[in-house]
Amino acid sequence: MTHNALTLSLIAVITLGACTAPVDRPLTVDGTRNANFDHDYTACHAQAASFTNGAGAETAATGALVGAAIGAVDAEDELEGALAGAAIGGLVGAAENASSVEDERRNVLIRCMQNRGHDVIG
Q: Do 23 and 51 form a contact (C-beta atoms < 8 A)?
């Protein structure tokens, strides 16, 4: 794998990490917040923060395998290309999983607040 491909892959990983929807972003409410909002938010936020989808290792491993295959084909030295591709693929897979978990945590928070009677829309 060339130096340029490595650089571009690392930029992709950083970009994916910057695109996450954090659970800490303020909620958008349609209307006014009732007296229980802050208490319910604290409970729902704790629930959302502990959420995991369990796919982290699987996503990283898949990324590593795909990266290794592409790196082996793309490089002059197949072993070196496969190792570099596996490392980059694993990072990209892990970044994708982190982004997915953050999105799901946000959704858990919103659904929890809605289930407690708050008009949260995002």
A: no
- DSSP per-residue string spanning 2-19: -HHHHHHHHHHHHHHHHT
CA distance 77 to 84: 11
Number of CB atoms found within 10 A of residue 45's CB:
18
C-alpha–C-alpha distance, residues 23 and 98, integer Å: 12
Residues 2-15: tens digit of each pLDDT: 555 555 555 555 55
Residue 71 inside a domain? The answer is yes
Cα 62 from Cα 122, distance rounded (Å): 32
68-122 tens-digit pLDDT = 677 666 667 777 777 777 777 777 776 776 777 888 899 999 999 999 999 999 8
Structural domain span for residue 113: 1-6+55-122
